[in-house]
Amino acid sequence: MMVFLPLNLRIDNRSILFVGGGSLAMHKIRTVERFTRNITILAPEIDPEVHARGFSEILKPSEKKDLEGYFLVYAATGDHSLDLCIRDDARSLGILVNVIDNREESDFISPAVLKHDDMTIAVSSNGMNARKSVEWRNRIRDMVESWE
Predict the structure, then answer these.
(1) What torsion, rounded to 10 degrees, do the Cα atoms 114, 124, 26, 38 define?
(2) How many Å apart are CA 122 and CA 6, to the nearest integer?
(3) Which structural domain range is residue 73 located in?
(4) Looking at the domain assignment, is residue 135 inside a domain?
(5) Residue 40 contacts residue 29 (beta carbons within 8 Å)
(6) Is 7 a domain residue?
(7) Can the keyword NAD be found in this entry's annotation (predicted)?
(8) Does some domain include residue 38?
């Protein structure tokens, strides 16, 4: 059984790399951008919605040397074998990597997050049921909003 330790990582002063510039990456970018603007997108092509976010962009296929210096890497190309190569490259450089939508291949996963004022609430199913995590987060959000 895979178990992930819930942690709050300081990333406002760290560089985050998304390898892949499509809708798969966009889904996680929406979460990460609430905590930092230090995001770089590496992909041969970048979806207009991702581009509109205004992050640093590197328009080329991924190479191992491109990962150097990043704190976290999200492999989000949509190509499973390429994502695994990115994972292997990141790990060889000592960088934690998330293979989007594949908890078995990931060093970390991202929970469903609720930010409210100074509070951050994370709901995780250890990657087993993202839909249920989002449902629980939304229920908690509704409760918090009803208290005000």
Answers:
(1) 70
(2) 8
(3) 16-105
(4) yes
(5) no
(6) no
(7) yes
(8) yes
Confidence of residue 6 (pLDDT cuts 50, 70, 90): confident
Identify whether residues 119 and 63 lie together within a single domain. no
CA-based radius of gyration for the chain = 16
What is the per-residue pLDDT for 1? 66
User: Residues 88-139: pLDDT tens digits?
Assistant: 999 999 999 999 989 999 999 989 999 888 899 999 988 889 899 999 999 9
Q: Are residues 122 and 101 in the same domain?
A: no
Q: CATH number for the domain including 43?
A: 3.40.50.720
Is 6 inside a domain boundary? Answer: no
pLDDT digits (tens, 9 = 90+) for 46-97: 999 999 999 999 999 999 999 999 999 999 999 999 999 999 999 999 999 9
Q: How far apart are CA 96 and CA 78, in angstroms?
A: 19
pLDDT for 68 equals 98
